[in-house]
Amino acid sequence: MLLHYHVKNFALIEDASVDFGPGLNVLTGETGAGKSIMIDALNAGLGARTGAEMIRKGCSEAFVELVFALEDRDCEKALAAMDIRCEDHTLFISRRIFPGRSLYKINQEAVTSSLVKQVTELLLDIHGQHEHQSLLKPERQLAILDEFAGEACAQAKARTEKAWQAYRKALKERESFTLSEDERRRRMDFLRFELNEIEQAAVRPGERDELAAHFKEMSAFGKIRDALGKALEYLSEGRENAADLLMKASGELSAAARLAPSLADADQELMTAQDILSSAEHGLKAYLDEADFDEETFRSVEKRLDELHRLELKYGDLSLPSNTAWEERDSEWDYLEDYENRLNKADKAVASAEKELEQAASALHALRAAAVPLWDAALLAELEEMNFLSVRVRTELEELPDSGANGKDRACFTVSLNPGEDLQPLQKVASGGELSRIMLAIKTILADRDRIPTVIFDEIDSGISGQTAQAVARKLKAISRYRQVILITHLPQIAAPADRHYAIEKQAEGERTFTRIRLLDEEDSVRELMRLLGGDLKSESVYRAARELKKASAT
Questions:
Q1: What is the pTM of this model?
Q2: Within a domain: 312
Q3: β-strands 101-106, 24-29 pairing
Q4: With 236 labelled, which of 162, 181, 256, 490 sits at a CA distance of 20 to 30 A?
Q5: Nearest in space to 467 (alpha carbons), one of 546, 525, 384, 548
Q6: Residues 290-345: tens digit of each pLDDT
Q7: Which of 320, 335, 362 is the last residue of a domain?
Q8: Which of 454, 371, 433 is closest to 146 using CA atoms?
Q9: 525 within domain boundaries
């Protein structure tokens, strides 16, 4: 329920607030007082496009705030699914309008306009003078029939939509089988060739890196041999080599150490150095003896590396444990080997899903068809109560050849509004005013089914008067027993039964014009009804007529 509505610096409105209540909330005012501006500002707060021209002259921004009381647990769950939490079951929505941009907030947190629209669709149902045009669309008429048909229809629709999704999934799976028998066999032959190639290659883990290091070493064998030869020459084989020099130095140091015991450690270290040098010399000689270059081995390693490189271009590095080339091809080969069986299963899945869809759609059609006469009777009764004389209605439910997510039906509301006229689709016979009354009749029928807590009517009484206006007032009052109703009207018959009556007033102060909203007490409401009746505000008879109208509307 909409609790509070605050508008600031929007068009003629400098600062206006309204506290709405349950039941029927009616706003009235003189032509030009700003009634339409109130609706424009409300729509702006709900995320409608609003230009900078709506910012009050001389102001840098406009502001709209809406406060809702959440009375439905399902609504709070839906909001929680959008990551919106409400304290004390209260929701705050605001919008600041700047030239070229807007700032939206829900519960003081900045949000997008699209989220605001999603949220408010759960809370408000606005019907302006042009909103009832949606009633002319066949899909909207079918949705109305479904809503009337109740929970069983809702469950059947859910089953049909689920069956449709399953059918689409099965169909998509079936469409993935695009290979002909020749293509399948050629692909299997190719996969078998690749699997054999990988198996015959018998690549060992780490083999490529191992061979690459060996090949690098063999490629540099000449340089290694020359370097080691020179090293041996310097160590022990040259005319002046390290071994001889170290031996001479060690002999001299040993003689000195016998005379100076403090040199014993240095003498020992020099002898150790001789041992290290001797060990290195033996290691180099052993390497040269064992690493005799073999041209055949070199060519064999080179050939294997070339083969591994060729395989790597096709399958990746087969020497890596993470390589899955063989497993992928083996899996695909198994899939293709069982291709015909899988194709048959896919065909059966499509047939089964299609059958389930047809059954679900047929069950949904049966529920809709059963609801049609009840719907027609209910709509006829409501229209007759709203002063449609000699009206006839019939809902045409066409069963389409193909089923979809919403079943296989197309609905068309046909009416005859005058005696002797044939039944025709609604869009061909109803005027704007008649459509608004038909929409009101529909709202009345669905009032106890609709989950949206607040409905707003903007001059739904356009083009009516007298007994028709009284009938419309009764319907609005009936809807307000189930939902909060907020409406703007210029008819006293519709304003009279208000649970809360507000006056929208325009005032001039100097060169500025202001629009204000005032909650009327009982006496002020009667005075406003006098104005709407068009009589002399000082006339006792007009006063009595206004009071009698208010009294009669309460019964």
A1: 0.65
A2: yes
A3: unpaired
A4: 256
A5: 384
A6: 766 667 787 888 898 888 888 888 888 888 888 888 888 888 888 888 888 888 99
A7: 320
A8: 371
A9: yes
